[in-house]
Amino acid sequence: MEPVERENKTIPTSPVNAPEEEMPLIFIDVSISPTETKRISIFAGDTPEELSEDFCRIHKLGDKMRRKLELLLQGQLDELTKEYLDKK
Q1: Helix 63-87 × helix 48-58 angle, to 10°
Q2: Which secondary-structure segment (H or E) carries 77?
Q3: Cα–Cα distance, 87 to 84 (Å, whole number)
Q4: Residue 78 φ/ψ region, left for φ over 0, alpha for ψ in the -120 to 50 degree band, beta for the rest
């Protein structure tokens, strides 16, 4: 996967090319067509709304896809939060 541009900043798509202080919490691969998949890197402080808006703007996807993606991202972040809290 190649890095994704977001707000004039290259988002690393793997831990190998990311400075430690900028490591994503999670990566999510999103199918944007039957033959194309793009990766979203989620960092601390990111919101599903901002991520879905940026992703859909960059990849020229419509509002219906943005809403679906926002729900998917919220679900993933909720699960990540639950797993973190369960470990405490």
Answers
A1: 140
A2: helix 63-87
A3: 5
A4: alpha
Q: Return the CATH number at 63.
A: 3.10.20.870
Q: Let me know the angle formed at the C-alpha of 58 by 14 and 38, rounded to the nearest 5 degrees.
A: 35
Residue 81 within any structural domain of the chain: no
Segment 19-25 mean pLDDT? 72
Tokens of 78: 């909720």
Q: Is residue 16 included in any domain, yes or no?
A: no
* pLDDT mean across residues, the chain: 82
Does the pLDDT of residue 85 top 50, yes or no? yes
13 three-class SS: coil
**pLDDT range class, residue 21, cuts 50, 70, 90:** low
Per-residue confidence band for 1, with pLDDT thresholds at 50, 70 and 90: very low
Question: Could you tell me if 13 and 39 are in contact, meaning their C-beta atoms sit under 8 angstroms apart?
Answer: yes
